[in-house]
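Sample entry (161 residues):
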Amino acid sequence: MSTHTIELVVNGQPRTATVSGATTLLELLRDQLGLTGTKDGCSEGDCGACTVIVDGQAVKSCLVLAVQAEGSVVTTVEGLAGPDGSPHPLQEAFVETGAVQCGFCTPGMLMAAKALLDANPQPTEDDIRVALSGNLCRCTGYAKIVDAVEQAALEMGGGSS
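Predicted structure, serialized as tokens:
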């Protein structure tokens, strides 16, 4: 199997990796770069646990080949913290509202919510529900997750309608 050397920016850091043509972005992040916050829930694009932001868009990293990420800017849940290590307002809101239970879906939910708030700082509840619709949660019932995104939008200066 042939290999490819790719360059991309992950969580603000330029990275170079050698991957096969079949290596997914999820495998690159977890196995080669050690960024295990991105979860492998289904490897089929159904659960959203592997959601990351690629060039401003929330994507399921199990469905993206690493070679497709060549030249891209990728943000994982590890990249949400501030430069001083302080939690992102979304992370704080998830904790404060009780939106975290087992936690397995949380990284993907956070990344989908971050992509939404970056594109739309004043989302409606419907906007939030649509943005999170590709991410499954078996524990929370979603209400507290929606509350967390609304709270983070307010704290980040956007507010929700």
